[in-house]
# Entry
Amino acid sequence: MIGSLSAPLTTTWNEQQVRNLIADENLIYQRIELPYGLATRGKDRSGTCRRIFPDDMAGKSVLDVGAHSGYFCFEAVKRGATRVVGVEMEPKHIRAARRVAECLNMPVEFYQLDIEHQVPQVPAGGFDYVICLNVLHHFTDPIAVLRKLADLTRDRLILEFVGFGRHDRKKLNLSWLSSLWLRRMPLLYAGPTGTNGRYYSPKFVLTHRALQNILTCHRNTFTHVEHLRSDFKDRCLAVAHKRRVERLIVVAGLPGVGKSTLIRHLRSDAGRELAQPLDLDRIRDWPHSEAHRLAEKIRQARLDLLVLHYSILSPYHHGSNEYEKDEFLDVLHLAGRITFVTLWAEPDVLRTQFEQAKILACTRKGRFTGRARNKRLLEQFENPQIIVDYYRRWFEFTMPRGENHAVVRDGEGYRLMSIDQWQQMIDQQGYAVPSSPQGPDTTGAQPGVESI
# Structure
């Protein structure tokens, strides 16, 4: 709580025991205030602490990766955090941190763990705050660690990392001018390992722009990243705010099928009859975004409701070829309740709509000026079985996810059906061709996939 920040430290230890703790342990990395007016000899990190932690953290959980002596863990407890966990690779740091916690009478859990190769036991949904300060540049694969930390974070991911400040550019033998240019670029700089002269060189150097791209675009799980200055070795601080959606509606279908038209219909008075069975009575008030524009369009970290406009060809257009790897579907992992509404149109209707929207609209004086992949896709749409197979693969992905699944058939007005009813209709129409383990053929004219 706020008042506890200035409250006197209480302990069952006598002054000599506290002095023995300081003498026995090599507590020279972080300055930690101890009873009897004593303190460890480390660096004062109170300025960083004030930047990254609010005064009131009541009810919050905190994971400190690379906790060392535990300073930030103890500060989180002072601010009211209810569960605080610190992890470290070095046994000597764990031993020292546990002794300090006992001295301060603080309920902090410390564990020896290699976050790069092990996964800690976490509460449901992860930790509200995950902090990783001045550690990232030591990892062999910092990108993989960032992804793991993102998965462990429920609210805020706080990072302190090596940039191109004065302290580290000297270690890397970089001039002031070159470091000034580099820090403006979205790059991950791989420095030499080991020693460089009398200095130890960090393995990896990140820029703010690179970190922001990784967290808000490559993963699409964070809404924005605050960039701050660290008071430690002129390094960089970042506070990333994780996206959270309580109710998510995914309106999906092939390109040209009419997803935008369906969303407008659901938001209109005429669409109430269709919206009510889907529990979408208030959809007209909900924010909505195309999946590939979510990071730039919706910057709120907490949303009660969101409508997502999604093309089921997105993995093929963006190179992942699997829904599980499509960054534009990361929001599924951040949603409390998910409803999938998939729009279906008969193959001949789809071909006509797609040709008008993507081919004829981009043809001037007989010359096509649109994307080449759309012409290849139109050729694919000549085969109804390919269309059906795309939808089957989408349903195979969505069925284990979400609590509601509906198919909207676009014909003479919209008709609501279940996936089983859609399958029966497809069987009756003679499109019942079993999907291959690889799904649709990805050679030749596969939409959005260039031949190698």
User: Anything to note?
Assistant: The radius of gyration is 27 Å.
